[in-house]
Design brief:
Blueprint (H helix, E strand, L loop, with lengths): L4 E7 L2 H6 L11 E5 L16 E8 L8 E6 L5 E6 L2 E4 L8 E4 L1 H4 L4 E9 L35 E6 L2 E13 L3 E12 L3 E9 L2 E10 L2 E12 L15 E9 L2 E10 L4 E4 L2 E4 L2 E3 L1 E6 L11 H13 L4 E4 L6 H10 L2 E5 L11 H15 L5 E5 L18 H12 L3 H17 L5 E2 L16 E2 L12 H7 L7 E3 L22 H6 L5 H7 L8 H25 L7 E4 L22 H9 L3 E5 L5 E2 L4 E10 L5 E12 L2 E11 L3 E11 L5 E10 L5 E10 L3
Parallel strand pairs: 20-21, 20-27, 21-22, 22-23, 23-24, 25-26, 29-35
Antiparallel strand pairs: 1-2, 1-3, 3-8, 4-7, 4-9, 5-6, 5-8, 10-11, 11-14, 12-13, 12-15, 15-16, 17-18, 18-19, 28-30, 30-33, 31-32, 31-34, 34-35
Catalytic activity: Hydrolysis of terminal, non-reducing beta-D-mannose residues in beta-D-mannosides
Organism: freshwater metagenome
GO molecular function: beta-mannosidase activity
Length: about 700
């Protein structure tokens, strides 16, 4: 029975906790509120940080002999206390998985009932000492800091089962080949009494296993394995078809099905070595983006909105989405499975946490695997994003030696978050799921005792250095570019109604910084306000700068394909709300100029030359290497490269024929020339022609200035 719909709610206090949870309280004066939903989307609670007490009345038939009744909260932000007919039944915590409570004895007392739920989602005011495991959905620098996601954001149900309920089901594919797939299953069963049951497993409608299992009263954890012959393999979109398989588990008690669960999974095998992933034994270079929440109010996003984000990533030429700092609704992962989009799944730990969070984080990591482990698109877990305690505020950059020193010290010195919490959470993931790699933390430099480090967050051209500095950094510190999971710069979005452009240049800068994410001092370092006469010119310049940075960063990393770079995730694909951010798609999914730059840089075959200097002088000798990056599974034989150098008073052309190795980066030519004695722009156009297999173009430019 679905209890979604209109409930009543009021700000919770001690008096209401004593008097308003029973059946006979009159809540007619309370505000109406929709469930599922977030309370701040209701005008009566738009400025509230809770807690709120929710109430609803319902009528349900009493369970018959052998049946059990359950209250199921499919999603609550973030903590709750739950009463049925005034009787306290539980205190769930955790937003991304369901919570269930056996209420059989209470439901048998009558047909009419009252469910009361007090929901709390305490504000997280700092980057340090956080306590809610809500990740970027609270107090994140790329979302409205005033947003509180509190509420019953997923349906609330009354569920009826037999004497044994299959409370959780985990289905994992350990290894696979064309002849056989090996599945590991784990069920958490709740039995009303000691008994023996049959657990029947069906794959695509065919019964493949039946086992007898003795259960104790209460919670029982059961593991079993099965082999599936001649499996239909699941592949990412660039490697093959997305064959999906339905696995159903029935718990049979005395010949009758007491409870069932079904999941849709895919037969595939994941491996990772030195930050290079392979799927079903096929190595794959990962081109990806960080995915922000589709909307801040996740309850307000329909399944098509999540699918649209996956489709936009696919259209950009990406293989991977990093679900950044949150766990999304099931619709996102269903779409990724169906479309062949790989997923790097962050656990919702963002920045620094208080010490009392460890036990809860470990328990919720196990729940994450129960909730998502069957999805073939998920290829890795990440326990914690940026666990450091040193926060660089928007008015700071790492170029400041004091800020840089604090940041580097924080990276090297042991901390409770980095060395204790992250290890515990990583072990919890590995215990629950040994079929995927787990990353302890993201954005952590090599440090004792983890001299290998993790993936890197490199904001050259934004937080530190210049946008041309990545190549030299990669040459000096190759270990730091094995996988770069964050880079980018901010740009003004196409839909910027929240900005009063008529006030240019005296915009409400404080509002843009405090509410809409603008990092003004960083923006001033790269796109100065005083250089542009109008708001529109400045906004376009921020987009052009972002497009240039992303294009050249991606091209630089792709030229390092497998030597040592295994891939990247730029920051970020989308906005969750109206923001000035690093996204390439705004909150209405209108593209910034950088989106097309990403499309061009992420094509399966690209031709890339060494970048020309910002300026050159007549008579200067240059040697420019040209590489072809080929992500196809076939070589480009007898590919023709044409290079065209143009300046105001002349031009020069080269032509080369060569082979670009499959799934690799190949240096195909070196262009040597002397800068002509002609002031003005110097253009280099590249064209690669591999017949019907592939074609690619690229362009670079510089400025010839007198010596």
């Amino acid at each position: 029975m679905d209890l979604s719909g209109t409930w009543r709610a009021a700000a919770a206090d001690d008096q209401l906790r004593r008097s308003a949870v029973g059946m006979h309280f009159d809540d007619s004066e309370w505000a109406e509120i929709e469930v599922p939903g977030h309370w701040q989307t209701n005008p009566a609670f738009a400025a509230s940080d809770g807690p709120l007490l929710y109430r609803t009345n319902f009528t349900v038939l009493q369970p018959t002999a052998g049946q059990r009744s359950w209250v199921v909260l499919d999603g609550v932000f973030y903590q709750a206390d739950v009463w049925l007919d005034g009787a306290y039944i539980g205190d769930p915590e955790g937003y991304f998985f369901p919570h269930s409570f056996d209420v059989s004895s209470l439901i048998r007392l009558g047909d009419d009932h009252v469910l009361a739920v007090e929901v709390a989602c305490s504000p997280q005011h700092s980057h340090r000492g956080r306590r809610n495991i809500t990740g970027v959905l609270q107090q994140w620098d790329a979302a409205d800091p005033n947003w509180n996601p509190g509420g019953l954001w997923q349906p609330v149900r009354i569920e009826t089962t037999g004497p044994v309920r299959l409370d959780r089901l985990r289905v994992l594919c350990r290894d696979v080949n064309e002849a056989r797939a090996h599945l590991r299953l784990h069920g958490r069963l709740d039995s009303d009494a000691p008994r023996t049951v049959r657990i029947r497993t069906t794959v695509d409608g065919v019964v493949v296993a039946e086992i007898e299992q003795s259960l104790a009263s209460g919670t029982n954890d059961v593991d079993w394995n099965l082999d599936v012959d001649n499996p239909r393999l699941w592949w990412p979109l660039s490697l093959g078809a997305q064959e999906l398989t339905d696995v159903q588990v029935d718990v049979v008690v005395e010949g009758l099905v007491s409870h069932s669960r079904r999941v849709r999974t895919g037969m595939r095998e994941i491996a990772m070595q030195d930050w290079i992933w392979s799927i079903n034994g096929e190595r794959l270079y990962l081109k990806g983006a960080n995915l922000a929440p589709t909307r801040l109010d996740l309850a307000g996003a329909d399944p098509q909105a999540f699918r649209r984000d996956v489709e936009l990533a696919r259209d950009a030429g990406l293989d991977l989405l990093r679900v950044h700092g949150h766990i999304a609704p099931a619709a996102l992962y269903d779409a990724a499975d169906e479309l062949g989009m790989l997923v790097w799944q962050d656990f919702p730990l963002q920045w620094s946490y208080a010490r009392d969070v460890r036990r809860r984080a470990v328990a919720q990591a196990e729940q994450a695997v129960f909730q998502l482990g069957h999805h073939p698109s998920i290829i890795t877990w990440c326990a914690h994003n940026e666990p450091g305690s040193t926060t660089i505020s928007p008015d700071q950059t790492r170029s400041s030696w004091k800020t840089a020193a604090r940041y580097l010290l924080d990276q090297q010195v042991p901390s409770w978050n980095k060395n204790i919490l992250d290890r515990w959470v990583k072990r919890a993931f590995e215990k629950a799921d040994d079929t995927r790699p787990t990353i302890a933390h993201s954005g952590v430099m090599p440090h004792a005792p983890e001299f290998g480090g993790s993936d890197s967050h490199l904001y050259f051209g934004w937080r530190h250095g210049g946008e041309r500095d990545l190549s030299a950094f990669a040459a000096a510190f190759p270990r730091m570019v094995r996988f770069v999971s964050e880079f980018g710069s901010q740009a003004v979005p196409p839909h910027h109604e929240f900005i009063d452009a008529s006030r240019w240049p005296d915009l409400d800068w404080d509002m843009l910084e405090q509410t809409h994410g603008l990092q003004r001092s960083l923006m001033e370092n790269h796109v100065r306000v005083d250089a542009y006469a109008t708001f529109d010119l400045w906004a376009e310049a921020t987009q052009r700068y972002q497009a240039t940075l992303l294009r050249h960063h991606i091209e630089t990393l792709r030229r390092l394909k497998y030597r040592p770079n295994g891939g990247f995730c730029f920051f970020m694909l989308n906005d969750s709300s109206p923001m000035i951010s690093c996204s390439v798609l705004d909150h209405q999914r209108a593209p910034k100029l950088a989106f097309q730059a990403v499309v061009e840089a992420c094509r399966p075959v690209i031709v890339v030359a060494d970048r020309l200097p910002p300026s050159v002088t007549p008579g200067e000798c240059l040697a420019v290497d040209v590489h072809v990056v080929n992500d196809l599974r076939q070589p480009l034989t007898d590919a023709v490269l044409r290079a065209h150098l143009r300046w105001a008073t002349g031009e020069h052309e080269w032509s080369f024929v060569g082979t670009a190795v499959d799934d690799d980066c190949t240096r195909i030519a070196t262009l040597q020339f002397v800068v002509p004695d002609s002031a003005g722009e110097l253009w280099l156009d590249l064209t690669l022609d591999a017949g019907a297999v592939a074609a690619a173009t690229n362009r670079d430019q510089t400025l010839i200035v007198p010596a």
